Amino acid sequence: MTRLFGLWLALAAGVIAAAQATNPPAGKSAFDKPTLEAYARHLFLWGTNINVAISDPKPAPMPGYQEVTITASANNASQSEVLYISQDGRKIVRGAVYDVDNSPFADELTKLKTDLSPSMGTPGAPILLVMFSDFECGYCKQMAKTLHDNLLKSYPKEVRLYFKDFPIDSIHPWARSAAIAGRCVFRQNPQAFWDYHDWIFDKQESVNGDNLRAKVMEWAGGKNLDTLQLGRCFDGKSPEPDINKSIAEAQSLRVNSTPTLFLNGRTLPGSIPWPTLKQIIDLELDYTKRTGLTPEKCCEIKLSPLPGSKN
After folding, report:
1. Cα–Cα distance, 109 to 155 (Å, whole number)
2. HSE-CB of 150 using CA atoms within 13 angstroms
3. Dihedral, CA atoms, 242, 245, 251, 257, nearest 10 degrees?
């Protein structure tokens, strides 16, 4: 009898455990979007003036969790956070998940799209440097001069630099127009873009929204560019979708200021002094030599001249 009673207790305990596993205790769940939004607003100090969007969950890189992206936005600025939620919805993990077989910045590298972007340096170089910049930004001007004076002199074969537009419209009223002009120059003559890049930063203090077009056309006339074609491109704003795509890419990488560099996927915000940047490049070169982990090689794309251009 005692033995049967013990068996009954074991069976009952099993039934109760199974029921608890199937029906977890009632309570808050981070899979409930209003609950997660309220929690995130408190965590990140996002006030009622901040718009919050929460993605649907998807499998996380580690078992037992679901991945959710929560994005806060106001005006033209946005910030995204990746959160990992346990299967029962009770625990939230904020952080990064790494795979020792891949670069710790593999996720950033997959988001960086360098095709059809102005570039200089050696294709397939071990150091991939991507710069998000704004032509009206004073710190971007400093960073541009630092790179111009030092980068290829110190690393003639080891670095490939790409330029990406990130005009901050809310504080820089003519930055987008300058980006459009730069893209128009690039479409007509990719190599001339860097002349434009240096010129527009040099003239930053004398340029404004009213005189930008005239100054660009005057500059282009001295560079053997087709000013008629350039003017049509500028007035029609045909490169604007490319610029918007670059902005969206920057936001997906959590860029919220300029300049921001990505060195083999590593985020480096702000205008960085050359000695500091050189030290980081040297450390990265040493790491790639020892481990063989390098950014994905990409090919340089040659653009055909636009119809009616001189180049």
Report:
1. 21
2. 15
3. 10
Mean pLDDT of 40-65: 93
* DSSP, res 270: S
Q: Is 84 helix (H, G, I), strand (E, B) or coil?
A: strand
Residues 155 and 258 in one domain: yes
Query: Is pTM beyond 0.85 here?
Result: no
Class of residue 47 by CB neighbours under 10 A (exposed 0-12, middle 13-18, buried 19+): exposed
Q: Same structural domain for residues 86 and 110? A: no
* pLDDT higher than 50, residue 306: no
Residues 134 and 197 placed together within one structural domain of the fold:
yes
DSSP 75: T
Whether a cis peptide bond, with omega within 30° of 0, leads into 59 is: no
Q: Which residue from 126, 65, 71 is spatially nearest to 97, judged by alpha carbons?
A: 65
pLDDT in tens, 194-249: 999 999 999 999 999 999 999 999 999 999 999 999 999 999 999 999 999 999 99
Domain holding 255, by residue range, is: 106-291
- Total domains in the fold of the chain: 2
pLDDT score at 294: 67
- Inside any domain, residue 13: no
**197-228 as b/e: b if 16+ CB within 10 A:** bebbbeebeebeeeebeebbbebbeebebbbe
User: Would 179 be classed as within a structural domain?
Assistant: yes
